[in-house]
Amino acid sequence: MANAMGFTTVESNRHLPEVHSGSRSHWPVQETCITLAHGSGGKAMADLIADVFVSRFENPALALLNDQALVSLPNMPSLGNRLALTTDSYVVDPLFFPGGDIGALAINGTVNDLAMSGATPLYLTCGVILEEGLPLDTLRRVVDSMAQAAARAGVQVVAGDTKVVPRGSADKLFINTAGVGLVPEGISLSPQHIQPGDVVLVNGPIGDHGAAITVARADLALESCIESDCQPLNGLVEAILAACPQVRAMRDATRGGLATVVNEFALAAQVGFRLEEAGIPVRPAVQGLCEMLGLDPLYLANEGRVVVVAPSADAEAVLAAMQSHPAGHDSQIIGKVLAEPVGLVLLKTAFGSDRILDRLVGDQLPRIC
What we know:
- With 369 residues, the protein is α+β, with helices and mostly antiparallel strands.
- The chain folds into two domains: 11-183, CATH 3.30.1330.10; 191-356, PurM-like C-terminal domain (Phosphoribosyl-aminoimidazole Synthetase, Chain A, domain 2, Alpha-Beta Complex).
- Helices cover 26% and strands 22% of the residues.
- It has eight helices and 15 strands.
- The protein has helices at 43-54, 102-115, 136-153, 208-218, 234-243, 257-269, 284-293, 315-323; strands at 19-20, 70-71, 82-90, 96-97, 100-101, 120-131, 156-165, 173-183, 199-202, 249-252, 272-276, 306-310, 332-338, 345-348, 354-356.
- The strands form four sheets. It has a seven-stranded mixed β-sheet with strand order 10-12-9-13-11-14-15. Strands 3-8-6-7 form a four-stranded mixed β-sheet, covered by helices on one side.
- The longest helix has 18 residues, at 136-153.
- The radius of gyration is 21 Å and the shape is globular.
């Protein structure tokens, strides 16, 4: 997408300020695979953008695609008084896996990064790197998934960019998404706010995404189907903040998993943590896979799990709010914050002893997002 993709507000996104766009005519793409011409900036590229991207991102206009998206400002103050910005790139292998694909991952990952600040996600941009020879049906399937994920999260993809590289210069398809949202007044989430005595919560079983990628990549024949937890978390975050605006910090446990997030919190706040192994939810199939392959579910990636630190007095209210939301039915309180040892995370094992959960060295599984 060499130019911006503008979209008008649709029924499912009534909270979004108006986005201005233009229109142009185009011909449906006839090729079955991506060619270098699709990155040339000419007619083949324009047809690809209009046929594959613009149509799926619900833009009724197909021409005058400017180099930026213009967004009306008058309604924004009602949503917040601070701007949240983020960007992320996605190179997951394989492109499709149980419970998701690179398209849904790109939308949900950026939506969730915005939500972790308490922001209401509004607009996303989409940049794609396409390898020559990529089947058009594969690209269409990915963009269909992106459109569905954006609708579910209540955001709009308003601008983008497309680049095509020669065969062998990339691995099929890479995606970059950037996002913008607004943080409501009175909401301030930061690890520096964490205090001794606070409690730690998670919204469901950990390690599903990393396990699903492992199974898909190795083509393991398992009786139990493990699916990624890929999902948007902005609705869950909204429910949590409605129940307790004083929540200290949130972070989605992606690469490095739960243990890495809690270590980051401990270092930033200069406190200690003790997690209860018995309270941390892990699906039996994920636990079994980890035992078989020598992996630790505490360090496996997630794409729909948020770690929440809240004041102890509000812990039950936060837990109830999380469990009442579809993205948090299986939420649990999994630990507490300690004054000491500073910067360390302890895991109380089933045997009653403490195990140090150190920061991950290297990566258990590369290219999981």
